Amino acid sequence: MRVVAFVACLAILGAVLCPEASLAQPSATSEYRSVPQARGHHARTPAVAAITPVPTPAINLEPTPIPPTFYSVSQLGDHLHAVRWELAIVGAAILTVGIKDWDWGNTSGFQTIEEGWFAKNTRHGGMDKIGHSFSTYVIADLLTDRIRANAADPTGAPITAALVAFSIMGLVETLDGFTGRHRFSREDIVANGVGALFSIVRNSVPGLREKLDWRIMYTPASFERPGVTGENGILPPYERQRYIMALKGSGFEPLKNTPLRYVELHAGFDARGFEEKERELGYPIERSFYVGVGLNLNEVLFGTGPNPNFAKYRDTLPGWAVRKTFEYVQVPYTSVYQENRFSTIRRVGTTLQD
């Protein structure tokens, strides 16, 4: 699995949010004029009290503004310029990982592979497809934030971010096609598109971002290699991953001032027994759906409730980094689940039994 999203996270965390520009406030002035004094009167009367003002038509020296379109090529250029450093860092990081771990440079003829989706005879039980969707979503979501912070006109930021993330992941997949090890998969391209589309929807529908997170939870198994996946890898393996959709109580107005703002409803999926080490140990092949409840750590740490927390630091760079991490990562043991396994197959030697 190439969870490029984690590389993007590390890259974006190094960027500094731009301060907001202040708006100049025009100062009002009062004019007075002298009125000829009548005999016996020694007063200086404001002109506005003595003379009925005659309205004069205002002269507009500014050009008539043209209403902006929802999205245009000029906006795309502005958005790309706004995240040029982030894109440069992400590109360098991906290139480094590709050469180190994904056999880029060991060029062969372009090859494709039919990997399937979530069937029991697939290589990873569908976890790789969810991983591609999730990676594209995280890159797009982070770039959306950066464009909105830095672009002159952030209108359509989710579209630009999704296009860029989809292009990055598509380029990764294309380069895989020349390695002979991973090969090009059309299913992965479709999965990337799903992640990009989810990012657009989540960042465009009002209030949805506050209500819904997509996260990964990783709990290492005792038999896994220390650290991360691959012989010399840097990314987490599939064996103990779980992908979770979290519906947050804090995103609903009636619940914001109740204890339910700390509660989330979860729905998740994982697959076990598909990896080589699991096969060697005789683990059963099984895929599972989960439903449960979890603790909203962002609300606990940065919420505006009566309990003391770190709310005053939420808009600092460290606070932003922590909040974004908890949007994408479910900390183990902060939730409870009811599991529903399906298509469980047990291995006997090198054969499979239902």
From TrEMBL:
Signal peptide boundaries: 1-24
Keyword annotations of the record: Signal
UniProt xrefs under Pfam families: DUF2279
Record carries keyword Signal: yes
Name of the protein described by the UniProt record: DUF2279 domain-containing protein
Organism: Microvirga tunisiensis
